[in-house]
Amino acid sequence: MTPGHKSLRIAFMGTPDFAVPALRALHEAGHEIVAVYSQPPRRAGRGKKLSPSPVQRVAEELGIEVRTPVSLKGQEEQAAFAALDLDVAVVAAYGLILPQAILDAPKIGCLNIHGSLLPRWRGAAPVQRAILAGDEETGITIMQMEAGLDTGPMLLKAATPIDAKTAGELTDELAMTGANLMVQYLAAPSDHPAEAQDDTLATYASKIEKQEARIDFSQSAEQVERQIRAFNPQPGAFFEYQGDRYRILEAEISDAEGSAGRILDDHLLVGCGSGAIQPVTIQKAGKPAMNLKSFLNGTKILKGTILS
To answer: What residue numbers bound the domain in which 228 lies?
Structure first.
């Protein structure tokens, strides 16, 4: 702990990889993390074995108590949380709704690391929605949590350009930014007065549905390329050909013109509503990802074929 900075009693609440840098940063900053809350282990892999979340694995590695309730709505869970006598709870992509009793328990309340520049992209999938919308920048907002969905006062912000980043790359970058911002805020909360959100500027980042990942070649090449980046790594933007599913993980925009979904040459150039898309990295279902040249050596999709 830096001289002059107070060590706080913290409960950390997070589940995926996005939350891990913040957990590590708070631990390294010398705060007392008295408990970590994470989603319960899920069955994963071919053997369907129970697999703990990334946050749970790191918390156990750091020797911190882990709690994995299915819900926080029960009085018993709320009493156990209140008994921690917290200064603050830090929340990052936890995945459970926090009832008012949880929000009110810590002295400073519950603070969230949100992956957008609020009030734009409140909700579950801010990174993907920002890419899909063609936003030039996004960022991190540290906010005071309240009952509404990402509606609370903003405490600290940092912006980053989106450029040509995939959702995976952008999420990793924002995770580090969020970790640093939270440590910065907790070191001197009084230096960062709360700012109310302007609800008239709010947009909603709804959860990604699997069917959204099917590539719609009737859109412009620019929009298709955004779709490919927004759904990399998950769920993966795809098309189907002869009953097999193919994920395009990386692509370039071409000014070539042709009917939507039609293969325009021998190198898998695909016509769009305007312009065309040239896949760079592609993956057949059940196979490893490969560059276009390697893919075409083993799979022939003939010029003139219409993709769906």
So the answer is: 210-298
